[in-house]
Amino acid sequence: MSLSLSRPDLIRRQNLINGEWTDARDAGRYPVHNPADDAVLAEVPDSTAVDARAATDAASRALPTWRDRLPRERAEVLRRWHALILANADDLGKLISLEQGKPLAEGRGEVAYGASYVDWFASEATRVYGDIIPQQHPGKRMTAVKEPVGVVAAITPWNFPLAMIARKIAPALAVGCTVVAKPAEDTPLTALALADLAVEAGVPPGVLNVITASRTRGIDAVADWLADARVRKVTFTGSTAVGIHLARESAGTLKKLSLELGGNAPFIVFDDADLASAVTGLMASKFRNGGQTCVCPNRVYVQAGVYDAFAELLARRVAALHVAPASDTNAQIGPMINRRAVEKIERHVVDAMSQGARALTGGAPLPSLGAHYFAPTVLTEVTDNMLVSQEETFGPVVPLFRFETEEEVIRRANDTPFGLAAYFYTQDMRRAQRMARRLEAGVIGMNEGAVSSEAAPFGGVKASGYGREGSKYGLDDYLSIKYVCQGDLD
Ligand code: SIN
Asked: What is the pLDDT of residues 449-472, one digit of tens each?
């Protein structure tokens, strides 16, 4: 699949700073690869701290005017952006598939998903209410008003190159913040195309700035934002290790933070579950983006009474998955993002099998397709000491753990530093309520594998981070509350 779009002008190879497309100040560039075959798709700026600073300068200058626009006016700009994203869905979906590797149907699905956040926050822009506090003292009126936090730095991951940046930029712009953004090194083209459409929609110069960078230079660029007191908030989706680093390094200027970090989601199937529905839920949830999703089930616990039946049903479905590059319109699982990802998956599977796990299907890379493919895999007889239990595999591997009792599975499911998503299937509604209460996670799927929605609060607990994206709560992370006490009224 080549980099040819019906709107070739959406392929941007420069940073967007202050409404202008510019190279990195020192003209550095790095290549973006197609994970399907490692072909170079384009070269983009390899920005440094100098470029990051220029973006912050622009965002700071643009802030007062954007903040003072009527919410309705900001909403109109977001609505135009939403319409343009949908009008260019085919091109954007193709760009996502090209640089990230997910099948075309999933690429287009991500465009719709990302656009839904823009639409949602366009509406929320006009609903930022404050409070009049019931009177406490004669002659005094106390109010609480909400204000934009200021300049926001958005640092986004490669697994959803459009949706993750859209759901950070949209609420920020909706409430009157301005943004400096850095997409992941591997997937900058979609973010630049999205920024191009934002400009076309009428986002004023400096309100949205996007710079691209390779891993090493990106660290320097982000460090500049972390140290700059004008940047009042950092929103990040990515690994827990990087999230902790960002929290530590931004402490000097006490920034507001939203951190959507790693997960290790349990997926629990009780003896009384509707097995067909549980298998379908697991397939949808586990194999979304080839297993490279933070909310993907990582540990699948199946109660002893249905373990063998469930494993057999599942293995049949998994063996039938079609693994191919996005250029194959029948592809269901694409390449993993890079070689490091495949190596990690292989390390987990080899570790499990060397300790007694058995592969019902898959179990190895697929070099005949290319360097970044791994066969969809079902492992049985998996135990808690194996790497697949302790770390997020982030690939198309389903490890099946056997359990006996509800109490035991709750303890094992919660026995992880992470707490992003958790799923369970049971037809006992009392048990369902207990499980929802006792599982330590920010997102719960109760007889449901597809939990993501612009209308829902998405985010974790424990080492999976804090802050919520989407829903009415998604605005709070971009707002601060100002208390106004007016006296001398009587
Ligand atoms: C993620 O993988 O971080 C986000 C997935 C989602 O929004 O469903």
From this structure: 999 999 999 999 999 999 999 999
Domains and CATH numbers, the chain: 8-261+464-483 (3.40.605.10), 266-446 (3.40.309.10)
- State the pTM of this model: 0.97
Whether 294 is in the pocket of ligand 1, judged by its Cβ within 6 Å, is yes
Answer whether 160 contacts ligand 1 (Cβ < 6 A): yes
Measured from the CB, is residue 201 less than 6 Å from ligand 1?
Answer: no
Nearest residue CA, atom 7 of ligand 1?
A: 452
In the residue annotation, 106 being an active-site residue is answered as no
The closest-lying atom of ligand 1 relative to the alpha carbon of residue 289 is: 2
List, for residues 284-308, the tens digit of each pLDDT value. Answer: 999 999 999 999 999 999 999 999 9
Give the DSSP per-residue string, 398-427. Answer: EEEEEE--HHHHHHHHH-SSEESEEEEE-S
Q: For position 3, what pLDDT does the model report?
A: 77
Percent residues over pLDDT 70 in the chain: 100
Q: In this structure, what DSSP letter does residue 203 have?
A: P
The single residue of 260, 392, 454, 469 carrying the catalytic annotation is: 260
**Alpha carbons 33 and 58: distance in angstroms, whole number:** 30
Query: Which three-class secondary structure state does DSSP give residue 148?
Result: strand
